[in-house]
Design a protein that fits this description.
Blueprint lengths: L8 H20 L5 H6 L6 H12 L2 H4 L2 H9 L1 H6 L1 H21 L4 H9 L1 H34 L3 H50 L2 H6 L14 H17 L1 H8 L4 H32 L8 H5 L5 H39 L5 H22 L6 H15 L1 H9 L5 H21 L9 H19 L7
Helix pairs in contact: 1-10, 1-16, 3-10, 3-13, 3-14, 3-16, 5-14, 7-12, 7-14, 8-9, 9-10, 9-16, 9-17, 9-18, 9-20, 10-14, 10-16, 10-17, 12-18, 12-19, 16-17, 18-20, 18-21, 19-20, 20-21
Amino acid sequence: MELTNNPALLWFVAGYGVFMIILGIYFSKKISNSEDFILAGKGLGSFVLAGTLLATWMGSGSITGGETSMAYSYGIIPALMMTIPTLLGIGILYFIAPKIREFGKFTVSGILEAKYGKTAQLIASIIIILAFVGIVSYAMTGLGFVLNVTTGMSVQIGTLIGAVLIIFLATIGGLRSVAPTDAISAFLALIGLFLALPIMFSIAGGWGEITANVPEQHLTATSTLSTVQLLGFLLPSFFLLLGDQNMYQRLAASKGVKTSKKAQIFWLLAILLITPTISLIAFTSRSLFDDIDPGMALIGATTVLPTAVGGILLAAAAAFIVTTGNSYLLSAATNVTYDIVGKYFKKDASDKQLVLYTKIFIVILGAFSFILGNYFPTVLEVQMYAYTVYGAGLTPALLAVFFWKRVNAKGGISSMIAGVGTTLLWELILGKPFDLNSVIVAIPVAVIVLIVVTLITEKPVSKK
């Protein structure tokens, strides 16, 4: 079956886009200071918090990369395995969420500064900006895919439109407007996915017909991947989630610890429902479309569904993509403003000036994200790069703040440099030897450096 355009689907996407803009403008009027803009006034309830955690995490990475690309390229079992790192990550965050809130920082860099000093804070800010710009870039590309399917316009033009929408929504109201639109997007996605799955199965002729139309290796545990290569796809999301500044900011923005814990339980349950559904729809697309970009598998399914169902699913996909983009863009701009400009160039900046600077940097970083997206051939490739830069560069040092009292500044900073350096060396200079994602090498290097440097530089206990 060939992938054909269905312009009628555009009405659903456009309608939801207009709704998001109106909602964003409405909530933007409730902003009175930087805490409102960055942390939504620390007033997120459990429902909105769960929705924004879900929508931010289950964004373009899942819709046009992650589970979708894995299901289409390698089969249903590897795709379902992509759920495991997320569940483990949520479980760990559940226990450290109270500590995150206690720090009361706008950024992860602020937490690292409290433990390791200003040098760590500056390095962390640069790492976050590098990684988040990459994540925003594939969100923009994801929306380009959506518009390509609906209208037939080129992915490049669609990506440009996506960039404008993402930048606008991030700029208009910060987390105060992003969080509630995230929650609505998550609810819409649940409806769209659950309506689409049984209909897709029926269109494809049932499970027997689906499995008969996919390559035989797509029904095995690892498909054409070795175990180590599969781990290379599973580990990046795990280490990103454990240190993701977006998640830390949202947990810090909750009304309280009880609200936060309740929201995380809802988030985990929603992941258990959504990620297998995405995987199954993308796997079904593999049986219907045997020669499309893997990132198009879920979006392509909307063209064979009844228009109403396909429109709801496509609008939900677009909403998830946009919420990922504006969330990570806002978060990266926050780092530039508060951890670099506010600390080194404009120490006397007023609260209103800091909010203005954040909006300016949203636009600048958004432009960089659009440009970066042109350098990676697939969404999954840029996703793995961005996740690993962050996960290897920050997560070991960050988790040590919560779990290892002996860790010191030299160990933490060395780990951050080693993690990012190894990732860039493996990906950009060596060109991914053995076709392994850099996480397989970068995470162990970062952890080993953290432990060894801390132990050899810690001050000996004086004996009286």
